[in-house]
Design brief:
33% of the residues lie in helices and 21% in strands. It is built from eleven helices and 20 strands.
Amino acid sequence: MDDVIAIRPALSQDRDVDVVIVGAGYTGLWTAYFLQAADRSLRIALVDREHVGFGASGRNGGYCYDGFAAGPHRIEAMSDLDTARAWSATLRHAVDDIGQVIEDHAIDCDFEKSGTIEFLVNGGQEARARDDVARARRYGWSEAQLRMLSAAEAREVGRAANVRAGLWSALTAPIHPAKLVHGLARVVEDRGAAIYEGTAVSSLVPGRIVTPGGTIRAPIVVRATEGYTAELAGHKRTLAPLYSLMIATEPLSEDLWDSIGLANREAFGDLRHLVVYGQRTADGRIAFGGRGAPYDYGSQVRRNADFSARAFVPVRGALLELFPQLQDTKITHRWGGVLGVSRRWMPTVGLDPETGIAWGGGYVGAGITAAHLAGRTLADLITGTDTRLTRLPWVNHRVRRWEPEPLRWLGINAALRVMQYADETESRKHRPARIAEWLWRLVKI
């Protein structure tokens, strides 16, 4: 195996447990955590081909927020208004729930509930923000939790360039993602779970997983592989692996921070279609990321999300569009992460009671809170506990599979180009790009 930095031993013998979890990222670890909270006698094993947090859990933008890849309007379309409002309330509480676990177990991960500002730099973004606020009111977000800002109010938070208005959310906590995932691993291990690193799974079937070092048998097998799901036999078309790329600056001087703002460590971005996101880190850097890296034919996974330095140029360019005062600032770190995307941009979580196979994933990059909720829900499903979470419409929701190649490659990469074109169009014309609206309707078919 390449690029394995394992600190725990690989599986070296057969084992029998109550629950085996494939993937030691947020989904797998939260599932183990809540299973242990429900029943400390459960024998739980987690295996990871690489190491804890190797995937998106250790590489994401550090946005712990009340978001979900499929918005509440999608939940309402799948169910009803009351269910969508209940789901939205669950999301709003999730950030504090995660913060409470972090506090209870003294996980040092730079969690700070400081909010998010979206700097709206053209008419298209501003129109989407106003629609977002109007829709949020329908589902229970208050003015204090989500509201529009004037240009002057937005500049009081952060002095980004060319700002027409702002969108403020109070329900975001920047975190250090790798510190959180490793902290969770410590907690579940202290409670008795076994974690095997450097352990590739060659077969995941009802009742067991097979690895080079041995077989683990369990009545419940959890697939928590997210962006790496396509590597499992039979799952090439389940979740498409897409990528986010990130950069981090050198620590910034106090004078430079004075020119930028973000004094309370607010997370930030704008509302372009090819999503960007950033935060002021606890050690005084800016960590900033964006989407748009190409999809590889056949759902091939770049295990370490390796890209050439050239691929990060647009990410730095997007950061400089917001904060041109960073023009001479050094970029000290570049990295990528793979995320899982379902055909209809809809995350799912579930348990097949006949086979004992459970799963969670397809977060489309909005996975910190979604994985936490997936873990809570999976624990309820596995222990047979009927709760409000197990009745939400993403549970056991079957999303259609992606098209076969070459249609998958053509469609996904064409969609990325369309979104790039839509952003460019909105920058020029200052109104929403209809081609993007058309594409989103097509995705949901």
